[in-house]
Amino acid sequence: QLPTAPHLPADLFTACLTTPIVMALRVAASSPLAPRIPDLAQKVPGTVQDRRTPLGELNWIFTAITDAIAWNSLPRAVFQRLFRQDLLLASLCRNFLLAERVGRSLRVRPVSLPRLPPMHHHPLWDAWDLAAETCLAQLPAMLEAQAEGRPPPPYVPSSFFAEQLTAFEVWLSHGAAGRTMPEQLPVLLQVLLSQTHRLRALALLGRFVALGAWAVDLVLSVGIFPYILKLLQSPAAELRTALLFIWARVAALDRQARHDLARDGGHAYFA
Measuring CA to CA, which residue among 262, 255, 31 is closest to residue 134? Predict the structure, then answer.
């Protein structure tokens, strides 16, 4: 008979794979520091598709963190196969990282094929814990206002992405000389989806690709090409200088990128 816990679903592994955000929030809600509200994890407002809502923001952060953990922990070929070639497979693999972390905390070890190295101890999980706990801490006031028919207090968005950009900026200033892999690079990919941080992210990305061919190679390996290609459709004039510089570096060093740019009509942006 498998062990069970009252605050966790009976099929823990399946719950992690199919409803990762709710599962991760249930674990966070069991912390002694979390508000004592029944079924708190199910009461986070919003949808996972809308990044402007608390639930959507948490899903966005979860995607960025699990991508970054995998990119920093796996061989490049394995990362590309599991996290970049198929959207459904990538989602399952991200959720498996959560299953491993939750399972390890309960002395259970999920296994995969191919076998993946342990990733439950990566420091970026601390950033996820902070984001989840910060969200849960705001829920009691929001739920109380809802019960009383009052407008809820405004939700304070997570500072995760701004902090990761700052960490990447520090790495550019002090760690770039060693040509080490900056663990924040996959997070930068997700930040490009945010209008709030997009200009700063592009400026930092430009500083990174200016370091040389090895930096451009890392940028392409993390899967950033489709994102900067889509940004060529943006009418925002303030992005033009940064995009021109980044694309000049990429096109100069990667023949396939030049071919893909011409195939998709992106070259018209530079005319």
Answer: 31
In terms of Cα–Cα distance, which of 164, 72, 106 is closest to 98? 106
With 80 as the cut, is the pLDDT of residue 239 above it? yes
In whole numbers, what is the pLDDT of the chain averaged over residues?
88
Amino acid at position 191, single letter: V
What tokens does 153 get? Answer: 């207090």
Distance CA(190)–CA(65), nearest Å, equals 10
Per residue in 17-69, pLDDT tens?
Answer: 999 999 998 888 877 666 777 677 788 888 988 998 999 999 999 999 999 99
Buried b (16+ CB within 10 A) or exposed e, 42-72: ebbebebeebebbbbbbbbbbbbbbbbbbbb
Q: Quote the CA–CA distance of 181 and 196 in Å, as a whole number.
A: 25
DSSP state of 268: G
Residues 102, 155: Cα–Cα separation, whole Å? 27
* 3-state SS, residue 161: helix
94 touches 67 (CB < 8 A): yes
Residue 198 near residue 162, CB atoms below 8 Å: no
Give the integer Cα–Cα distance in Å for 180 and 28: 32
